Amino acid sequence: MGQVYIGDIQSRTSAKISHLHTIFACTYGILFFGTPHHGSSKAGALSSLEKIVSLVVPKRILQTSSGLVCALKEDSETLQEIADQFAPLMKHFRIFFFWEQERTDLKYTKDYIVDEASAAPILDDTERSGIAADHRNMCKFDSKNSPGFRTVAAALRRYSVDAPSVITVRLARVGRILHEQRLHEADELLQGLHIE
Fold first, then answer.
1. CA-to-CA distance for 117 and 99, rounded, in angstroms?
2. What digits encode the pLDDT tens for the residues 43-79?
3. CB-hemisphere CA count at 13 Å for 6?
4. Please, are residues 109 and 42 in contact by the beta-carbon 8 Å criterion?
5. Is residue 110 scored above 80 in pLDDT?
6. For the chain, how long is the longest CA-to-CA vector?
7. Does 10 have pLDDT greater than 90?
8. Angle at the Cα of 152 (from 159 to 46), degrees rounded to 5?
């Protein structure tokens, strides 16, 4: 009876943890396309536009996430917290930052949505490259001969060659850690049971 009970608890709690460990272990590289790591000056304009639209359009028709818009503002606390949490993990991944090299048409003006400094911070052991497109089109390539496509494809090819051996080692390590953790949890549960 105790073994069934312990196994049931383990399967419910450790399944979520195991899934997260597997994602971590199986992620070798991360490509960021125009991601505002330090926020965007356009978030303030978007926030103003959001307020104007909310005066005209009922909320049930147009739902926006003002919390997300606030988080994307330059020097946002939320972005800083995310950066602080991600910084110690970066050494485990190959990171490639891409920034837009053309201004996005905003109807009333053309401007960068995320500037180079925010999209591609200069950090050790990372790669950086501009994409000859605006923010909307930096992930849309005209052909396989487009310079941006060739840069992205080359990074993916390099990562796919190197990733299998690294991931195999990581998965073995994660398997051992999770097994030890489950044994420890089971031991604690058994010590808590008063079996006579």
1. 9
2. 444 443 344 344 344 455 445 555 555 666 667 777 7
3. 15
4. no
5. yes
6. 79
7. no
8. 120
